[in-house]
C-alpha cells in the first residue's frame, strides 16, 4: 500500500515539476526529458530518486532535447507550409492527392519517431543523428504497435480537455510519458542492445 502511494506521489510530483519547469518555453525540452526519465524508471521498476532523476536528466540532456525539438519544429513547419501551398493551389488531380498523402505520411512518421526518440534519449548516449535513425527503424519494425501507443498517449490529453484544468497540472503529462514509455520499452528492449543503453 505504501509503495503504491509512493508511486502515485512521484507520478503527480513529476507532472508538477514538468509543469513548472516548462513555463519558460526554452526549458520545455529539458523538462520533457526529465519527465521521460522518471516515467522510464517507473516502467522498468527501477528504484527512483525523483528529484535526482528529473533534474539530473534535465542537466544532462538539455542540449540534445532542445536539438530534437528544433528539428521537430522545422520539419512540422515545412509540412504545414507544403499542405497550405497545395490547398491554395486547389489541385484536385492525382499528383496533388499524392503530394498531400506524402506530407501526411511524413507527419505521422514524425510523430511515431518521436515516441522512441524521447524514450531512447533518457537511457542511451546516442548522438542525435543515431537516435533519430534508430527510432525511425523501430517505428517501421513495429508500425501497428507504434500507432497504438500514439493513440493511447493522446487519450490523457483528450480526456483532460473535458475535465477541470487542474487535472492537466497533476496527471496529464505524466500519463502521456508513462504510456509512451510503457509502450515503447518492450520494443526497445528487444531491438537495442544493452551496450547502447548505459542509463538503464
Domain unit count: 1
Largest sheet, in brief, is: none
Number of strands: 0
Global outline: globular
* Poorly predicted runs of 5 or more residues: none
Structural class: mainly alpha
SSE run: HHHHHHH
What is the count of helical runs?
A: 7
How does this structure look, described?
The structure is a single chain. The protein is an all-alpha fold and 200 residues long. It has one domain (2-196). The protein has 7 helices and no strands. The chain has helices at 2-21, 28-43, 50-89, 94-121, 128-141, 143-161, 166-191. Helix 1 runs antiparallel to helix 2 and helix 2 (28-43) crosses helix 3. The two termini are 26 Å apart. The mean pLDDT is 91.
Q: Care to give the gist of this entry?
A:
The protein has helices spanning 2-21, 28-43, 50-89, 94-121, 128-141, 143-161, 166-191. With 200 residues, it is an all-alpha fold.
Task: Offer a few descriptive terms.
globular, 200 residues, mainly alpha, 7 helices
Q: How does the SSE layout of this entry go?
A:
Layout (H helix, E strand, L loop, with lengths): L1 H20 L6 H16 L6 H40 L4 H28 L6 H14 L1 H19 L4 H26 L9
Helix pairs in contact: 1-2, 1-7, 2-3, 2-7, 3-4, 4-5, 4-7, 6-7
